Each structure stands twice: as C-alpha cells, then as structure tokens.
Amino acid sequence: MTDKQPAEIAQVAAETGAKKVHRTWDRVLVSAFLAGAYISFGAMVAITVSSGLDPETWGTLPTLWTGAAFTLGLVLVLIAGSDLATGNMMLVPLGAMQGRITVGDVARNLTLVLLGNLLGALFVAYFLAVSTGVIGDADSSGSAGLTFERLTQIAEGKTSGHTAWEIFLRGVGCNWLVCLAVWMSLSAASISGKILAIFFPIMAFVAMGFDHVVANMFFLPAAIFAGVPDVGWGDTLLNWLLAGAGNLVGAVVFVATSYWYLFLRDQPATAPAHGGEAPERA
After folding, report:
1. Euclidean distance between CA atoms 44 and 70, whole angstroms
2. CB-based contacts of 264: which residues, under 8 Å, 6+ apart?
3. What pLDDT score was predicted for residue 267?
4. Do 255 and 180 form a contact (C-beta atoms < 8 A)?
5. Three-state secondary structure along 153-216?
C-alpha cells in the first residue's frame, strides 16, 4: 500500500467527515470524551517536561520541549481512534461541501464532540492532574511545585497575556496547523508515517503559543482546580469562545475550503455515506 497523493487525501477526508455523523449520539460522546482525555495527557506531559527550565538560561527552548511532548495527544487521538473537535472542524464541513451531509449534521456533530472533549479534559484536569499531585499547588515543593509554576505561566498567558483579537488569530493559526497534521496523516499508509506527519505541525503550533480550544479545556480548568491566582471561569469561558471561533475559521477556511476548491469542487461524491465507523478519526 502506497501513501496517498493530495487529491486522494481530499476524497478520503470528505468520506471520513461524512461518516462521522452517521453514529449514535452516545458513541460520538464517548469517542469525544476519549479525545479530550488524550489531548489532556499530551498537555500534562508537556507541562512536566518543560517545568523548571529558567527562561534566562534556556531562552525559548522550553516551548520546543512543550510542543514536542504535546504531540502525544494527537498521536493518541488518530492512532487509537477518537473524535477531536478541532479535526472534525475540517473533516465534517468538508463532507458537507461535497454534498454528502447537511449543515445541520455538521452543527450537531461539532456541538456533541465539543461537549465530549470538555468532559474528558475536565476529568483528566481534576482527577489525574490536580488530585494526583502531578500538578501541585502554591505550597508544593519539588516536582509538584515546578509543575504548578509552569501551569501558572501557561494559564496566565492565555487568560491575561493577549487581547481578544490576538487569541482569535492564535486560534486560527493553531487549527490551520492541527488540520494539516490530520490531513497529512490521512496520506500515510503506516503508523510510523502517520506519527511523523503529526509531529511537526503540532510541535510548531505549541512552540509558537497558538491557542487550541480543547487543550485550553485542560490548561485553564487545571489552573483553577490547582488554585492559580487570577485565573477564573469568566476569563476561561472567554478564551474558549475566542480560541474556538479561531479554530473553526482556521479549519474551515484555510484547510477544508482550500482543498475542496483545489481537488473536490468538480468531483461530486462517488457514493453517499451510510452508517459505520469512519476509517480515520480526528
């Protein structure tokens, strides 16, 4: 089996997106819960490996370690299989653009997947990050204290370090890269090829400080649960709204619409999508 070329990727992506809406709501919700948890695992390890690295000594290198470690999240999503809202923001609208599903199908799928992602992220943030002591509190010492300091740095940067316009644009850039990772993973015929396709775009968006709405569903609640000062639910919800809107634009405009125009506009769907699980998930 050989790797797919871009025009073939477009056909597979549209079919995958269409198949995602032909599942029962409970299966979608469970699949999305897993994806929210997987992204949170990537965020946890990213915090851990970049904790305690003084910027005065290391400069911006900690962001590289953060990005490289965070790739675990999307690797788990795509290889193990689950539904991530940011990937679905590209795949499901692409299925609609080719006439396989309706706009209503897109809206229902994204709403349910976002809910499942949020539940998975909150579960990991509360029970596996803070309650386990992996992320400490203000009084912690040792590794727990270092992870608390690193989480504080990340969360405060996301809630007070940027304007609303900057957060939105960072959401656009983030999901442009995330969806390219998903897109390129569809081209690979092997697991190693998929992982390689995922690694560089995900490492890049994290290293540049872009905003991923599902990752922020972990970072910001974890900061609140750990008692990080000046991080509250109001700022958290605003960040999710702005980052999510930017993620949607990045996915739909810069990936789904662009590749639909290049490869699918004059290629009607070969067959309607009916039941069954999608061969690739994101």
Report:
1. 8
2. 10, 11, 14, 94, 97, 98
3. 79
4. yes
5. HHHHHHHHCCCHHHHHHHHHHHHHHHHHHHHHHCCCCCHHHHHHHHHHHHHHHHHCCCCCHHHH
User: Is the backbone of residue 59 left (phi > 0), alpha (psi -120 to 50) or beta?
Assistant: left
CATH numbers and ranges of domains, the chain: 6-264 (1.20.1080.10)
Answer for the pair 228, 159: CB distance below 8 angstroms, yes or no.
no
What is the predicted pLDDT for the residue at 59?
81
pLDDT band (50, 70, 90) for residue 276: very low
Which tens digits make up the pLDDT trace of 11-20? 999 999 999 9
Q: Which of 225, 280, 211, 251 is nearest to 96 (CA)?
A: 251
Average pLDDT over residues 16-45: 97
Q: How many CB atoms lie within 10 A of CB 7?
A: 12
